[in-house]
Description:
Elements: H1 2-58, H2 64-144, E1 149-163, E2 166-179, E3 185-195, H3 198-204, E4 215-218, E5 223-231, E6 245-253, E7 260-269, E8 279-282, E9 302-304
Antiparallel strand pairs: 1-2, 1-8, 2-5, 3-4, 3-6, 6-7, 7-8, 7-9
Helix pairs in contact: 1-2
Amino acid sequence: MFKGLNRYIVVAFLLLEAILFALFLYDSGSLSGTSNEQARHFGQHYAAQAQLQVKRTCARSNLPADCVLPILQSTREDQRAESNLNWQRQAARWSWWTLVIALGQTLVGAIGLVALFRSMRQTELALGAATDANLIARESLYSENRPWLHVEAVTFEHMTSTMGQGRSMLAVFTVKVTNIGTTAAINVSARAGLAPRPQDAIERFSGSMGGVGLATVLPSGHESADLFEVTTIDEAIDEASGSCWLAVEVGYSGPGGANRHVIKEIWIVASSIHKGTPTTLGRTALESNQVIVPTTKLGITVEMT
């Protein structure tokens, strides 16, 4: 639409320029003819006036030559002045038309520049739209052909260990991860950490956490269960409830090793762990699929790319 409008505007101004130039030629020709006619008329007029003045002034003069010569010189000066004035009028008229045509050319050039910049802007927008479309298509294709890991369950057992003169509680975690995507996940890794409160568990993601790799490659539709070992869990127990929170982080990559993905979840121990019995970890009704980003409320599993 804009391209057609720009074309029509440029054509209209070019036609206007052509009309102005034609008017200039017509006016110049008309002025030249008028000037020639005026020059012939004034030439005849000055000649007649000179003859009349000679008859009136020099008829009774004893020296006719001395009387006629000044009259002829004066007549020539008047003719020369009239001719100069006529040429000045023509020059002024040509200058005026030159200015009009120059202004028209400037306007046409400005319109052309505006049309050029608009065309360049439209080209830039079109390239940007094409780039965005290609990016969306590539991301859509990757989303349809990428691994998606899901933490199915986390089980927990603890044991008492004698360390030096004291006894310490050791925790053993089993994390079950399923690849529900269409391609294999590679470079799969995981880590976990215990904390007495959920906010402490959130902070564990940016701090130290223990962990081992789940699997180098996890094909589509396969499950992997590996052990996390966290030692000295006494300090991770909430004294009031006897429960604790587990921060679980699973990282993996898509085909070719690009686009690293990270799953972050918080799990809560459903029963007291200091009684010496095996305990199962599970998401609570209010805390399932919890967000790990500190500025976001709990309740959603976060996967960062």
